[in-house]
Amino acid sequence: MRIPQIQMESQQARIAIQTVPGRQSIQQPQADLQIEQPQADLKMRTTPGKLTIDQSQAWEEMNLKSTFKAIKENAVKGSQKVMEGIARVAQEGNEMIEIQNGQNAYVEQAKRQANPPMPEVNITWVPSPFAVKTHYQPGGVDIQFQPRKPRIDATIRKPIMNYSPGDVQIQLAQRNHLKIDLVK
User: Fold this and answer.
1) What is the pTM of this model?
2) What is the DSSP secondary structure assignment for residue 143, as one 8-state letter?
3) How big, in percent rounded to 5, are the helix, strand and coil portions of the chain?
4) What per-residue confidence (pLDDT) applies to 1?
5) Nearest by Cα to 50 from 119, 130, 134, 136
6) Read out DSSP for 121-135?
């Protein structure tokens, strides 16, 4: 004997999905930009430095004096030598008066004139150190600066945007069904 059997046949439902993607485009036009930079105001004033050099002492030490100064110094020296000569002659006259006291004035005077004292010798630098005098007065610089701000004109442009929305279509591609058979 055969036992009846139940046969079931099923089919699942299937769906079909179709998509159209969305599209977006963005364009950004460049802005109009104008920049102008005015020149700054700059004023400069300089005072030159001043250098003074005094060489008069060095020239005098090298015996290169002005005519008037040389005449004046030589007149003073000449007057001094004349006075020294008068004093010497007066002293020699006084020594000769003393001859009666038994002194031999002629011999003493002859010895002095024949053997004068040695002149002093000394090494010196001509001209002496620091004989040239210098003085420097530094100059100056006065700077006045006035900056100017730049002028900026900017025209902003809005972006251009295009958007196409996407689409999704859903359909039933296959229906579900269930078939039941009884097989004997």
Assistant:
1) 0.39
2) E
3) 30, 40, 35
4) 66
5) 136
6) -----SSPTT-SEEE
